[in-house]
Design goal:
It contains ten helices and eleven strands. It has about 280 residues and is of the alpha/beta class. It has a six-stranded mixed sheet with strand order 7-8-9-5-10-11, sandwiched between helices. A three-stranded antiparallel sheet has the order 4-3-6, with helices on one face. It has a two-stranded antiparallel ribbon with strand order 1-2. It binds adenosine-5'-triphosphate and magnesium ion. Magnesium ion (MG) binds near residues 69, 70, 107 and 183.
């Protein structure tokens, strides 16, 4: 099978390789969460949470700081176990099976300090058994698109926060998993780069759909990128509202977010957020 990791210049679609040694990623896994509860010792983080993410749907999570959003992503990805309820990813519910189906981009970039930017980006490919040269070549093809050209050999400590975040995002995409759990993927980016990355991700998901759970503090970003946005209450986190941006959304981000119907839903989401903080 031809190994092909390339960005389609016309569409921005991301073609992710399936290594011969890696498990082929199952197509279109959904996420089903029923009656979920979680606690860190005495601290109840999540309570009676229900969430359905259909295959290839993009669902946003917004909520007050500390309400359990990152914990919820870690639970979905099989990095933590619930204290109540069930989580299914593509019909599988054990933690190792969830982990195998999810690519997780943590809130902190967690790049390996002794690896170059390029080797950090290609880490998922290496973990799938790809040789160093092949992993580098495949990751390098996407560096330009992510505004990282020329920084291939740079160590994470010498990159800006936004660049580190882009390397981490690239690594997550290259993992080739059907479910992406993204924890504030664009938080460290300047406004212009952030808008560009949002537009790029929206385009890439249109042509190469994945199931996405996206945590963000930016309601506009959530509504622009997501099919649905779930608003969580203060801890213990529960879903208190689900909102949907009006369709069809303009492909141009500025046009989409200034549409009066979009602005009205954004206001509604802000009201729900304020309500949830009480
Ligand atoms: N490993 C841990 N051990 C104990 N408590 C934790 C741990 N991780 C997080 N917490 C606590 O659990 C709660 C939920 O944390 P979490 O990181 O999931 O919130 P969050 O919604 O992602 O917040 P933010 O928006 O600030 O990123 C917080 O009160 C946090 O202090
Ligand atoms: Mg968090």
């Amino acid at each position: 099978m031809r190994q092909d990791t390339s960005m389609n210049a016309e569409t921005g679609a991301l073609r992710v390789p399936q290594s011969g040694t890696a498990q082929a990623a199952p197509e279109g896994d959904g996420v089903a969460i029923r009656g979920l509860g979680h606690a860190y010792g005495e601290l109840q983080t999540i309570e009676r949470l229900e969430l359905e993410v259909e295959p290839h749907a993009v669902v946003g999570l917004v909520g007050p700081s500390g309400c359990g959003k990152s914990t919820l992503l870690e639970l979905i990805c099989g990095l933590r176990e619930p204290s109540a309820g069930t989580i299914g990813v593509g019909g599988a519910s054990s933690a190792p099976e969830r982990l195998a189906r999810c690519a997780y981009m943590p809130q902190r970039d967690l790049l390996l300090p002794w690896y170059s930017a390029l080797d950090n980006a290609g880490l998922a490919l290496r973990n799938q058994g790809r040789r160093k040269g092949a992993a580098r070549a495949e990751a390098a093809e996407l560096f330009g698109r992510f505004g990282l050209a020329g920084f291939e050999a740079t160590a994470p400590a010498e990159l800006s926060g936004g660049m580190r975040q882009r390397v981490a995002f690239l690594r997550t995409l290259l993992a080739g998993k059907p479910v992406l759990a993204l924890d504030e993927p664009f938080a460290a980016l300047d406004a212009i780069t952030r808008a560009e990355m949002q537009e790029w991700l929206a385009g890439a998901l249109r042509t190469d759909p994945r199931t996405v759970v996206l945590v963000t503090h930016d309601v506009e970003e959530a509504l622009y990128l997501c099919d649905r946005v779930a608003v969580l209450s203060a801890r213990p986190g529960r879903i208190i509202a689900e909102l949907r941006a009006p369709d069809p959304r303009a492909e141009d981000r500025d046009a989409a977010v200034t549409d009066p119907a979009f602005v009205a839903v954004r206001e509604e989401a802000m009201r729900a957020l304020r309500e949830g903080m009480r």
